């Protein structure tokens, strides 16, 4: 589990698929903040 207020991203490897399902269960804590997408160039630097 990722702690609250921690910036992180989800991604698949170049040779695999990723399906991300987000379910917010604690509505009193506020909604999720979806951050900027990772560009192809940024992703290629990480892999």
From TrEMBL:
InterPro entries: RmlC-like_jellyroll (IPR014710), RmlC_Cupin_sf (IPR011051). This is Quercetin dioxygenase-like cupin family protein. Gene3D superfamilies: Jelly Rolls.
